[in-house]
Amino acid sequence: MSEATTMTVNTFDEAKEIYRQKGLRQALYDAGEIVMSGVLVNLHGDEHRARRRLENRLFRRETLVSYERDFFPSIIDATLKPYVAQGSAELVHMSHQLMMNLAAHNAGVDRPTGTPEETDRLYNYMMKFIEGATLAHTTRDPEVVKGEITESMSLFDAEFIAPSVQRRQALIAEVAAGNAPESTLPLDILTVLLRNEDSLHIEHHTLVREIAFFLLAGAHTSATAFVRTLDNLFSWLEKHPEDSELVHTNREFVQHAVYETIRLNPSSPIAMRRALEDVTLRSGLVIKEGSTVVIDLMAVNRDVAMYGADAAEFNPHRQPADSTVSRWGLSFGSGMHACIGQELAAGLNERSQETSDYEYGLSTVAVQSMFDRGVRPDPAHPPQMDTATSRPYWGSYSVLLG
Ligand code: HEM
Predict the structure, then answer these.
(1) Which atom of ligand 1 is nearest to the CA of 273?
(2) Could you report how far apart the first and last alpha carbons of the chain are, in Å?
(3) pTM of the full predicted structure?
(4) Does the CB atom of residue 106 touch ligand 1 within 6 A?
(5) Number of domains making up the chain
């Protein structure tokens, strides 16, 4: 029998090598299995490839451009309007609301009544799923959290997934019968999965989890990046007032601030893989079957050889050492599980000529919309950390608007 150990990787090249190995499978979400079992990021090999190939269709360039052009401005306006009217906002709640509105559209979660109460319930389910996915870091009793998640999952299914499935199945049947054109089908994950149910062999409870995962992965990561970017820019602009106009006039500057924030604070500080067999790295190091490999993203992303002597500082003007080094480090992963939503969240690093106005990503557009509405910290209510998790999340962040 092989000896199971844990090793940590903290260099860029070795981390990329780990991400590419077929003999290493996802291990980060073992504790969060209650939400994450059977979802894309937890699949391996052929099963992962088959589902990823289908879901990739939702993240084609033209779909992303149409989201950013036709959809982001109205979602941002509608979500921010009441906060602008009251002249203030609490960013943690507001950003999850905003990003959830987009993630629900992309995942395929309908809100049949469209009432604020219905949106509040969806929000509460999503926040519970976020707690489930990060269960390993909870400071609460994990068994109590698990009970709450199981209950939320079944209520979420009954209220949101069941009617969303029903509406799509009716549309799919109409298209199959030749009574309606292909274009009547919604462009979302749920529709893709329902149309390919036979080849993917997905059971209903897995379908519910996959949609819950897209909702939380889409919303939570972008929401935290949004709040942290605003926080970083507030501090930066205090020290560099000469950049104050750039947040309004230069979307690329704001996008670089988002990338820099994501580099310094990846959505998870580590990635983790488990060896399905003995794996030999280029260095000759053998990872024994059953062993765990941890990629220390905080260290990899702050490598001074790649990002300079001030690698641990926030600097939106930073130029990485060369073009092979990404501005976001390895915060979107790499290899087979590389983030499917990277362009949606943070746009493209290099834009194509035809679509150059629209490839900055939702986090960038949302951050800039806040500056355009006069966002500034609220001196009467300093930001507080979230004490329910050991991860460094803001629990509340009050700002003034207008
Ligand atoms: C700032 C924003 C985001 C960050 C930092 C982020 C980060 C990541 C990382 C690090 C992974 C790889 C996990 C691993 O290899 O263990 C990942 C995978 C994934 N992300 Fe994101 N993500 C972001 C936004 C999004 C959005 C907007 C969506 C959905 C619309 C999304 C959906 C996913 C999915 C489905 C996977 C799994 C891909 C697979 O296993 O094939 N992410 N993300």
Answers:
(1) 16
(2) 65
(3) 0.94
(4) yes
(5) 1
